[in-house]
């Protein structure tokens, strides 16, 4: 298997469009690493640079310590799985899987042995005589994985490989793909815009936006401690709630006052942690929907922010309900147990101070 290192990688198209901006990143041997971000964030371009399908404008790419920046894709010993699977329609499944081996002039007896081995691993040995048009989406995905795996590459690169599957099959394939990767211990770089995929599959993930990496960490680290309002607002379903307001440094912390509602709070902060904020600075108060208590009396009111809002709509989601509450001009989403009583025009919300995150409105950077 292989470790992957990127040093100050930048990609500029047409001399002015920055697809990737000065990315430095280390991916460990055997790690399942996810590049997560919205469309146009640069994640696929970065994957293609690792594969050798794009050349960086600046920076270097290393695989197992070897500088491969100027090597063509075939000499990097990696396999790529695409969003569209890219199976040859005129070839049977066996020949699709065998194609990369035959391209390398592997003896036919060895081709047959390795195709049979990987087909059994992916449980598609009964499909080897079929054509791609005779397969379901999930079966086609397994064939594409088998073709990538059959030549025992140093790393797997995957560009949104599950995005064309229906929701139920996508969940099944997530589990299968992760199980397979753990069994084989193969280094995997996986591109997706789907945060659920990222959270459920990654050992570590990098959140990207505008060609830059905003934050790298385990899924739980990035979810619980976002470094910016962008990360907090992108990760989570539903995403983090934000209330806009002004903040003043005071003794013991930060005094927050919302701009368009009556929400006020003294947010504790250690001494010396408020150097990046001035008097009356515009900030965003962020908190996750699952951290909001609805119509409940906090045991210790001093450790909670308590405020009222207008009930808009309750979405029943089976095991829980999503309550939408208007607070000033903002809509706060609350995850509540299905048995929670929510009625009337007004509701009371409470958020623990330990669950609050504060970001600068001007650039989204987290403070405190």
Short précis:
The chain has 368 residues and is of the alpha+beta class. The protein has helices at 43-51, 93-103, 108-121, 137-149, 167-184, 195-201, 219-224, 229-234, and strands at 4-13, 17-27, 32-36, 58-63, 66-67, 78-81, 155-159, 187-192, 204-209, 212-217, 241-250, 253-258, 264-268, 281-287, 292-294, 304-316, 320-327, 330-337, 346-352, 357-360, 366-367.
Give the helices and strands, then pairings.
Elements: E1 4-13, E2 17-27, E3 32-36, H1 43-51, E4 58-63, E5 66-67, E6 78-81, H2 93-103, H3 108-121, H4 137-149, E7 155-159, H5 167-184, E8 187-192, H6 195-201, E9 204-209, E10 212-217, H7 219-224, H8 229-234, E11 241-250, E12 253-258, E13 264-268, E14 281-287, E15 292-294, E16 304-316, E17 320-327, E18 330-337, E19 346-352, E20 357-360, E21 366-367
Helix pairs in contact: 2-3, 2-4
